[in-house]
Amino acid sequence: MSSGLLTTTMTRAVNMPAGGEVVIRAVGVNYAYGAGETRTQVLFDNHLEISRGEVVIMTGPSGSGKSTLLTLIGALRKMQEGYLEVLHQNLSKAGEGEQVELRKDVGFIFQQHNLFTSLSALENVRMATALKPASPAEMDRRCIEMLTRLGLGERIHHHPAELSGGQKQRVAIARALVNEPKMVLADEPTASLDAQSSQIVLDLLRSLADGPTKTTVLLVTHDQRVIDKADRIVNMIAGRIVTNSLTKVAVRIVRALAATSWLEGLSEATLSRLANYMTVENRAAGETIVAQGQEGDRFYVVGSGVADAYKDGQYDEEKCYGESFGMITSYFKMPVPETVTARTDLELYVLHKDDFLHALAADQSFEARIRSLLAGASPALQEPAATTP
């Protein structure tokens, strides 16, 4: 590798915050219900970072710990083990008063509407404005505006008994959002909504995340309609975060992989799994990325920009979007076959040796594709090296 590595910025593609201010940081979070013989642990060594303005989906089977983690983040439950920081407040040692103060900056949306049956939709939402008081006229204006944005402008004076399940859910959502909170925590917020109402709610949440408040939104949901609005998907199984994917980065990587000739025909699921192993490197124009004849420990796929490839000192071809270069020499038993230099600034998607071996072990279709490549190569390449790092 060239000295250009000194200026490389490398980020785990699907595992890091989207950038900017981190507002949720969990380190080694455990939680259990009960004590003694009845103690049941439901969260195990969870680590997570979420940035301000991200829309995050939490998925996983029932009983996987999603709602428990959500209530810990919302200071509705006291921490037991590990470190949890939310909106720059250390909840690991927070007392009741500090938890109450944090909750004032959080909008909660639960499956149970928890509306006051004796109050109208407007009055139910108006209750929340007491956390951020203003003149009565201003508080009424905020409530009416939020209810109207959610399609309830003609229902503001109706009581819960006069509203459908979806309308009651939207009143609860309006109550959670009326103060433009710094964070929204929602448990299946669109479960009782039709497609049109769901789209309205999701557009509103996305606008709060993108707007001046840069509200952070964390949704526990199985609703596939939410994915297009999300920045990150966190999947939990049996109390553990098992995957944590930045959706926009993952989509960019999958699209680039799909355009890569030697991966043509692999399923989207296989490409998505492969993307989970990849990192992002940004290289400046003029840098040499790989050098012919050297040992290599990674593959590169061009995500944006243009590179130039040289063989034996002579210009060979350009490398554009979806094209690959580099070599894992210990596996393919050959040195790097070409020198590649960045003609422009590059975004590269990179598969390192250890992650390459893990990807082979985890996905038979990817392994079959690699063996097919080896079978079509020279006899010296047909038997790969031992697959130990």
Automatic annotation (TrEMBL):
<dbReference type="InterPro" id="IPR003439">
    <property type="entry name" value="ABC_transporter-like_ATP-bd"/>
</dbReference>
<dbReference type="InterPro" id="IPR014710">
    <property type="entry name" value="RmlC-like_jellyroll"/>
</dbReference>
<dbReference type="GO" id="GO:0005524">
    <property type="term" value="F:ATP binding"/>
</dbReference>
<dbReference type="InterPro" id="IPR000595">
    <property type="entry name" value="cNMP-bd_dom"/>
</dbReference>
<keyword id="KW-0547">Nucleotide-binding</keyword>
<feature type="domain" description="Cyclic nucleotide-binding">
    <location>
        <begin position="262"/>
        <end position="360"/>
    </location>
</feature>
<keyword id="KW-0067">ATP-binding</keyword>
<feature type="domain" description="ABC transporter">
    <location>
        <begin position="24"/>
        <end position="263"/>
    </location>
</feature>
<dbReference type="InterPro" id="IPR017911">
    <property type="entry name" value="MacB-like_ATP-bd"/>
</dbReference>
<dbReference type="InterPro" id="IPR015854">
    <property type="entry name" value="ABC_transpr_LolD-like"/>
</dbReference>
<dbReference type="InterPro" id="IPR017871">
    <property type="entry name" value="ABC_transporter-like_CS"/>
</dbReference>
<dbReference type="InterPro" id="IPR018490">
    <property type="entry name" value="cNMP-bd_dom_sf"/>
</dbReference>
<keyword id="KW-0813">Transport</keyword>
<dbReference type="InterPro" id="IPR018488">
    <property type="entry name" value="cNMP-bd_CS"/>
</dbReference>
<dbReference type="InterPro" id="IPR003593">
    <property type="entry name" value="AAA+_ATPase"/>
</dbReference>
<protein>
    <submittedName>
        <fullName>ATP-binding cassette domain-containing protein</fullName>
    </submittedName>
</protein>
<dbReference type="Pfam" id="PF00027">
    <property type="entry name" value="cNMP_binding"/>
</dbReference>
<dbReference type="Pfam" id="PF00005">
    <property type="entry name" value="ABC_tran"/>
</dbReference>
<dbReference type="InterPro" id="IPR027417">
    <property type="entry name" value="P-loop_NTPase"/>
</dbReference>
<dbReference type="InterPro" id="IPR014324">
    <property type="entry name" value="ABC_heterocyst_DevA"/>
</dbReference>
